[in-house]
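quick one before i forget lol
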Amino acid sequence: MAVITVSRQIGSGGSAIAARVAESLGYRLCDRQLLVDAAEYIGVRAEALDRVDEQHHGVVYSTLSTMTTLLDGPAMTEECFQIVVSDLIREIARQGNAVIVGRASQCILRGYSPTLHVNIVAPFITRVERVAERGDLSLHAASALVLESDHDRRAYNLAVAHCDWSDPLLYDLVVNTDQLSVDAAAELILTAARRSGILGVSPVRRQSREHVPALARH
């Protein structure tokens, strides 16, 4: 009944790695499908959600307002939409056996067990080169895109879950893919999941720091 959350920087290969992990475990992969499910719940067509993807707080609000107006749907604020997404993430965690990509899931499920929170990163120049190659962009254009993505995801996590996306203490494992293939990075995560003991464990509340013996804190 475990859940693995995967946060990722653009150009780190995080989405492909998450998909590989889900495939290896036979787990449900929850990426854009979270938005599709939320859209269906509130009656907004899924194709209208292409821009609502971990963007800046104000951008999301503007996009949702425009969508609901054009589609003659019910009034929908960003806050309401994110509540739906957050509730879906909690329900997925309750069901277990899922890999959840992004959407501040590492913050929304903080303290939930059994979970493994993973952050996929890579050096800035490596990410720029990958984005440039993937999108047939100049290095200058790719650099601007990477910076914009980092800014938007940081703002999204802050707005939705009041957490600092870059805080390493949010994660059980940080994987730098500068020298790792998708398969190698996925295997690291699978090894961590197996050795952590979360696979096949029933959900329990994590032990608080106050109950940790004093010697173990040093």
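fyi Residues 56-72, 202-218 have pLDDT under 50 and may be disordered.
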